[in-house]
Amino acid sequence: MVVASSSNNGEIVTNGMSNFKRDNKYSNSAILVNVMPSDYESDDVLAGIYFQEKYEKLAFELGGGNFSAPVQSVGSFLENKANIGMCSYLPNYKFVNLKSCLPNFVYTSLKQGLDVFRKKYKYFALDDDVLIGVETRSSSPITIQRDENLESNIKGVYPCGEGAGYAGGIVSSAQDGIKVANAIYNKILGN
Questions:
Q1: Which position among 18, 71, 114, 137 has the lowest Cβ density within 10 Å, counted as fewest Cβ atoms?
Q2: Number of structural domains, the chain?
Q3: What gap in Å lies between CA 103 and CA 126, rounded to an integer?
Q4: How many angstroms separate the CA atoms of 158 and 127, rounded?
Q5: Secondary structure element (H or E) that encloses residue 71, with its range
Q6: What percent of the chain has pLDDT over 70?
């Protein structure tokens, strides 16, 4: 399922989830486009967060301003037009042209990627599959610096995982967590 993950009023953020039994009739996958600091609109230390917020606000407005997610079928996305249909997203959704809430380079990259997927995988990115916008928080737009012992400049604080900028998902967050736990354990033992 794709669910609401907004943390601020006036912004839409989505994220995929699976129930333990994975017995739902829906499936989901995220298609990510790499965003670099050079894509931000300034050199401000928080420019990555401002970038996220800008597109989360556009998605909110495009969805109707009531926490409905903007959605579009793959076929319509590739043809750059809005359509109607059905979607599993809750609380609600609105079929629109997603190009209106994406940076142009993201829109172009997604179109190119979907074309490649469609050629390579027979049942991926079918015309009536649904794209739900926007998932802007696949990884942190900032990195909290840490030293060679994985400790920040604040003694006793060990930035870790996805939110701190050291991972890009559940597995890599867990791996980073283990690495930090080992660093703390070695510090306690004096190794």
A1: 18
A2: 2
A3: 23
A4: 45
A5: strand 69-73
A6: 99
Same domain flag for 164 and 190: yes
Both tokens assigned to 141: 């737009």
Q: Tokens in use for 144?
A: 């909290």
Answer yes or no: do 29 and 47 share one domain. yes
Tokens representing 160?
């870790």
Alpha helix positions (H), the chain: 47-62, 74-79, 104-120, 170-189
Q: Which residues contact 95 (CB under 8 A, 6 or more apart)?
A: 71, 72, 73, 76, 82, 83, 84, 85, 87
The whole domain housing 55 covers 2-132
**Statement to judge: residues 59 and 38 lie in one domain:** yes
Residue 38, C-beta contacts closer than 8 angstroms, at least 6 positions apart: none
Same domain (yes/no): 101, 152 = no
Secondary structure (H, E, C), 75-96: HHHHHCCCCCCCCCCECCEEEC
pTM score = 0.78
What value does the mean pLDDT take over residues 147-151?
96
Q: Indicate whether 53 and 9 sit together in one domain.
A: yes
Same domain, 54 and 14: yes
Same domain as 11, residue 60: yes
For position 184, what pLDDT does the model report? 96
